[in-house]
Request: fold
Amino acid sequence: KQEVTQIPAALSVPEGENLVLNCSFTDSAIYNLQWFRQDPGKGLTSLLLIQSSQREQTSGRLNASLDKSSGRSTLYIAASQPGDSATYLCAVNGGSYIPTFGRGTSLIVHP
Amino acid sequence: KAGVTQTPRYLIKTRGQQVTLSCSPISGHRSVSWYQQTPGQGLQFLFEYFSETQRNKGNFPGRFSGRQFSNSRSEMNVSTLELGDSALYLCASRTSAEGAAFFGQGTRLTVV
Reply:
């Protein structure tokens, strides 16, 4: 059974810092991994999707990497802003086609 | 292109009642999945429909059911509501099993 762990569970940083959020998974037989952000009480917004054959994906200030063999993905946020404050979740899509979600990293960026 | 639309956004129901939630996927997406999100359990998978057929099901009691129509719109039904069913219910659509998932804004269900 796939298990997904996100570290840290919470993070509070001053504006402008570069951040790394971690996602680890136990079964490396995956199709892809997707990063989301969730604002309080809202749905999930897709940030980046990395296919199993890819090593990284970039969108603006966000960069996600994937190391399937070690079961790890990182989300790098450059020059963080208060608007980046949200919970960040990773979801691993494996053989069952049922995405397994981590519990998320709650990020606060203060001015 | 319109995103995933969930209705209603908020619901208050009494214990023992039943409720139906609706999800309209992104045009062209044939896969619709439903999730329950609570502070204690996080995001839990309920079921997935693809081309009107239930393809996967999570570990929820039979009180939770769903269906998908020919236009890919999906409904989720919960019968005999319990206080513990209070949660944010999210649906997501994808073009295929390997595609990116796009979520709606959710339906906040409160059972009193």
